[in-house]
Task: inverse folding
């Protein structure tokens, strides 16, 4: 369950951001989780809930969006959705693919008071 | 009030991993992160590799375990530097844990440091430790559906060692399917079929590793 470590990193960043903005309450956080990442959204939400109880983040909603995996072909420059984790260009069959989306874990927005 | 903050959640760990990497590079040390399911043969592979390359490469090992120090003792018997990390329940090693071991090594006496991660196919893939590359082991008893179940680890690993090929006659497993699936998810992966029990296929792995370590060290010295 590495979602525990992920939740801790998330909480550390949120704390810092809240302090920076002088916020006392966290309403919600929007996360982008890449399709290729090994995170189970429900586990992350559960860990976050447990770890923030009795803190200024208690009750905050985690809004998790899964970002589809996308790549660009180095040969023909086509940008396409990488389906079923097949890293091959559907146009020219090249396997020289740069991943451009769907691998990161990021915070994109938070709502505070 | 809405605040937009675009931040990588793992940035704290990634930063420590980069700092670790800078230290390894400065010392001319090649580092790989070894990952697999429990029981796929990480420690056996290391024992063999230490023997196979002892005249060519000075190796050290970091052993990550949830609790015991059994694996570290096996490695220590080979007479090479080994440091045990007990993760205290955590399912993966992170950059900080690796940094804490630096005081226990003399990097000037090493060419290669192997980080044996905690045994599972999910969590270790997400956390960099400062490695040059990742190596994973899959045993033939685990089945050909593993690559599509754990795509991140397969996608991120430079090398896949398919272990326990001596068991192929006894298990319902098509090794060609494993290879095809792994290459679909990571077309640049280097694959080896090995048996730590019979020794079959290990020579090819040793040569690859020896050459990779030598080339990387030459690159680092040139900098
Ligand atoms: Zn193409």
Result:
């Amino acid at each position: 369950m590495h979602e525990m470590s992920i939740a801790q990193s998330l909480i550390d960043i949120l704390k810092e951001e809240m302090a920076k903005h002088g916020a006392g309450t966290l309403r919600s956080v929007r996360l982008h989780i890449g399709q290729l990442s090994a995170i189970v959204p429900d586990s992350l939400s559960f860990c976050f809930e447990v770890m923030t109880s009795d803190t200024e983040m208690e009750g905050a909603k985690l809004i998790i969006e899964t970002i589809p995996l996308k790549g660009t072909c180095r040969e023909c420059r086509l940008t396409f959705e990488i389906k079923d984790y097949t890293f091959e260009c559907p146009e020219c069959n090249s396997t020289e693919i740069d991943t451009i989306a769907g691998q990161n874990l990021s915070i994109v927005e938070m709502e505070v008071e | 009030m809405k605040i937009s903050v675009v931040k990588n959640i793992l940035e704290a760990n990634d930063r420590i991993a980069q700092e670790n990497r800078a230290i390894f590079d400065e010392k001319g040390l090649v580092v790989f992160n070894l990952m697999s399911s429990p029981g796929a043969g990480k420690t056996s592979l290391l024992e063999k590799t230490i023997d196979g390359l002892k005249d060519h490469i000075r190796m050290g090992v970091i052993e990550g375990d949830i609790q015991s120090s059994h694996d570290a003792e096996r490695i220590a018997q080979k007479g090479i530097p080994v440091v045990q990390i007990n993760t205290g329940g955590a399912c993966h090693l992170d950059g900080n844990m690796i940094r804490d071991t630096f005081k226990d090594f003399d990097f000037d006496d090493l060419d290669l440091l192997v980080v044996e991660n905690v045994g599972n196919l999910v969590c270790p893939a997400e956390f960099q430790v400062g490695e040059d590359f990742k190596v994973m082991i899959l045993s033939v008893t685990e089945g050909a559906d593993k690559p599509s179940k754990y795509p991140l680890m397969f996608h991120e690993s430079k090398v896949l060692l398919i272990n326990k090929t001596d068991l192929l006659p006894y298990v319902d497993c098509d090794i060609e399917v494993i290879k095809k699936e792994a290459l679909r998810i990571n077309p640049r992966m280097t694959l080896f079929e090995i048996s730590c029990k019979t020794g079959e296929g290990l020579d090819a792995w040793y040569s690859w590793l020896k050459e990779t370590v030598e080339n990387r060290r030459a690159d680092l010295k040139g900098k």
Summary: The radius of gyration of chain B is 17 Å. The first strand of chain B starts at residue 2 and ends at 8. Chain B has a mean pLDDT of 95. The helical segments of chain B are 11-26, 42-53, 70-76, 95-99, 146-149, 151-156, 175-185, 202-222.
